[in-house]
């Protein structure tokens, strides 16, 4: 039996229901959803910029972690309780500009663990942050 398809609009509607208010305040917009994949847009608000004038790493990691939960929902066809076991993030270049794009995809999903990759691109379209993650399905 196949899983129900979750649309970008479905995922967008779930963000305030599932995530903490400070994650909702990131103002992530779901641009595209496919089984095990999501593309998001995130404004680089002044509150996310550190003294160097670029988005802080903590905001990038929160966006990456959130994107993977949404990609998992797109994979599973619904929200299931899960927790991050590992999030390894490499910062390749600064994220500046008014927006960035976050792409997450599930690499492998089993009964109890799932593995994913998240790429964050700056306004110029260049890869700025790359993360890999492991989730435990509860």
Can you summarize this structure?
With about 140 residues, this protein is an alpha+beta fold. The chain is built from three helices and six strands; from the N terminus they run ααββαββββ. It has a single domain (about 10-135), classed as Hotdog Thioesterase (Thiol Ester Dehydrase, Chain A, Roll).
Can you characterise this structure?
This protein is an alpha+beta fold. The protein has a single domain, classed as Hotdog Thioesterase (Thiol Ester Dehydrase, Chain A, Roll), CATH 3.10.129. 25% of the residues lie in helices and 39% in strands. It contains 3 helices and 6 strands, in the order ααββαββββ. It is globular and about 45 Å long.
Give the topology:
Elements (H helix, E strand, L loop, with lengths): L7 H11 L2 H4 L4 E6 L2 E7 L13 H20 L5 E10 L7 E11 L3 E9 L5 E11 L1
Antiparallel strand pairs: 1-2, 2-4, 3-6, 4-5, 5-6
